[in-house]
Structures are given as structure tokens and as C-alpha cells.
Amino acid sequence: MIVESWQKSSFSGDTANCVYVTAAPDGTVKMRESDEPDVIITTSPAKLRDLLGGVKAGEFDHLAA
Fold it and tell me: What share of the chain is helix, strand, coil (3-state, %, to 5)?
């Protein structure tokens, strides 16, 4: 059994709403949220990079308005 090493986002601080990520042995990236740790999203590094680039560029700002 492989134990994954989850890393908490540095932006989460000590609050209950924390985002965790880990690099899986198969090359994918897994993400989970502290309120529901059994719900895991799996993606590729390239897709995560595209998402983060879009967030940084403000492509999703209208969803938070």
C-alpha cells in the first residue's frame, strides 16, 4: 500500500477550509478539501497548470461576483 503525502495549501492557514494536494505515483495530481477528505479530484499536471493559469489571469472572477 502506497501512503500519499498530502500537502496543505499555504493560503489555508489554520482555518477549517483547507485545500490539500499530492502527486500520485501514476503521475496524476490529487486534490481534496478538509471538510470532505474522502472526496478526491484527480487531474493531470498539465490540466492543473492550465486551471491555475486561468485563475491567475482572472478568467473565473465573474463566478465570484
Answer: 25, 30, 45
